[in-house]
Amino acid sequence: MPNNIILASKSKVRKDILEKNNIACDVKPSYVDEEMVKESLLNEKASPEIISKNLAELKANKVSLINHEKVVLGADSVIDLDGELISKPQHRKEALLILKKLNGKEHHLISSVCISKNGSMIWNYTDKAKLRMKDFSERELEDYLAKISDSALFAYNVYQIEGEGRKLFSEITGDENTIMGLPIQQIKEYLKQIK
Known about the structure:
alpha/beta; seven-stranded mixed beta sheet; 7 strands; about 40% helix
């Protein structure tokens, strides 16, 4: 396993997951224009899963190009609601709209990871978790959002599965690390194979 990898993300959650699993990392965000990439892929009728995979690969490759010989990990997570892509909210009004869309429904949280070296992908993996949100009134959703800090709200999409967000769901099927943005078991298995 490499002594140190580069995480091509400013996500504190992803960094914490790596560190909890004894994977040392340097953080070097990719600054990929995600909205532009999503818009382009949506115009080509790409599925949320394809968009997530493409973004993870773009992030890893971009950082890998300027960090030769280093192992770079890129990641991306999106919500798939019956084929509709739902991205992280940009502001609180949008967060409320997203929660209203998910209210009482089942959706998938898709997390894709890509490992690159010398500007090219050497491994990737995508995992899905299924979540069913309970039915809430608009007031209950507003009360929930009022309890969530801006940093948490904009980092974790609209729910924090390891905190207040767990209460939103009647059913969760899948790996919690995937829901938080990093399917760590598969990453560890792959890293064991490389020097």
